[in-house]
Amino acid sequence: MDKPIQQLLNEDENQYSLRPQTLDEFIGLEQVKEQLRIHIEAAKGRREALEHILLVGPPGLGKTTLARIIATEMGSGFKSAVGPMMERLDLATILTNLEEREILFVDEIHRMRGYVQESMYPAMEDYKLDLPIGQGPSADIIPVPLARFTLVGATTREGLLGGPFRDRFGIRIHLDYYTAEEIQIAINRMSRLLNVKIEEEAERELARRSRGNMRIAGNLLKKIRDYATVKSDGIITYEVAQEALEFFRIDELGLDENDRLYLRTLIEKFGGRTGLKSIAVAVSEDERTIAEVYEPFLIKIGFLNLTPMGRAASDLAYEHLGYDPPDYPTLF
Ligand code: ADE
Q1: pLDDT tens digits, residue range 35-47?
Q2: Is residue 252 part of a domain?
């Protein structure tokens, strides 16, 4: 468990070519797509830039994909940046080079520095940038007009965004985990794009073990394709899929070694309950990766509860890992 979060969030080139390009190709999130269609059609009709959009949700649910699709559907350009890497000067360079109605996508926007966020306010509200010339209190502020652009911010932690910043996004969208049926449709689509033969039963099995997450589904499909190529004739039958899932140690619920190490450590070393810092040190992983990548799904399936006394493993987690649940309540 030693990958930095950046690595976990970035996608490889292959994944990029698998991405849907339009809202019609995008599977699931029906209500979100309908809402976006309305805003896009209205903005196009008025020949205006789309309102600024905040996409909120755990990694792997399609925030970057949706941002690109928004640009395609608007017929606009697309530029992207990563929040924590941006300095005020970078922002000024990016903003002054934007074209009318262009989409500026900022990933991990909650990690943008406070003063960079603040220089974003006039850009978002009035399409102008207050550029300081000189230093200190005698500095002159020169307002530089900007093209009417759309900021699309992506965040895993909406609560970490400053209130005034969050309020400047006219459209806020929450992405939720996909159903196994939606993932199965996406796996079918991805396997056609990758030219992989896969049985329907195998698709269903992979979908069931993808933890409601499109990125995990794509990565799992590619790993199992390799397994089928080397160990069999390249066709992903139900039997080959079962064998591969066992080989890669993906369990019935889609949990992998990292998830199980987290839960086992929580239960064995800490009696089922501890703070984020302690568990992070114990599994040699950074706190953010744990809170943003590993924990949300464990919470979603009821294996983990965030309590005032720390992270608590539930009875379900104990049972899944083959431990007897403790005789004191695991949730209070
Ligand atoms: N790839 C990533 N997200 C997707 C989605 N929602 N539908 C289809 N393919 C995808």
Answers
A1: 999 999 999 999 9
A2: no
DSSP state of 198: B
Residues 106 and 190 in one domain: no
pTM over 0.70: yes
Q: Domain for residue 326, yes or no? A: no
| CATH number of the domain that residue 233 is part of | 1.10.8.60
Is the CB–ligand 1 distance for residue 28 below 6 Å? Answer: yes
Catalytic residues: 63-64, 107, 156, 215
306 Cα–ligand 1 center, Å: 30
Report the separation in Å between the CA atom of 69 and the middle of ligand 1, taken as the mean of its atom positions.
11
292 DSSP assignment: I
Are both 122 and 237 inside the same structural domain?
no
Q: Residue 62 CA: which ligand 1 atom is closest?
A: 3
Helix (H) or strand (E) holding 312: strand 310-313
Q: Best mutation site among 16, 32, 65 for ligand 1, i.e. most ligand atoms within 8 A of its Cβ?
A: 65
Q: Find how far residue 38's CA is from the centre of its chain.
A: 24
Instruction: Report residue 326's pLDDT band, with 50, 70 and 90 as the boundaries.
Output: confident
Q: Among 175, 194, 214, 220, which is best to mutate for testing ligand 1, by the most ligand atoms less than 8 A from CB? A: 214
Sequence-ordered strand ranges (E) for 113-226: 128-133, 140-145, 150-155, 171-174
Atom 6, ligand 1: which residue's CA is nearest? Answer: 27
Could you give the C-alpha distances from 66 to 23, 53, 56, 176, in angstroms and in order?
8, 11, 11, 13
Question: Which residues have a Cβ under 8 Å from the Cβ of 13 and sit 6 or more positions away?
Answer: none
Indicate if 86 and 233 belong to the same structural domain: no
**2-35 tens-digit pLDDT:** 434 433 334 444 455 789 999 999 999 999 999 9
Ligand 1 neighbourhood includes 57 CB (under 6 angstroms):
no
Q: Ligand 1 centroid vs 140 CA: distance in angstroms?
A: 48
State in Å: Cα 283 to ligand 1 middle: 31
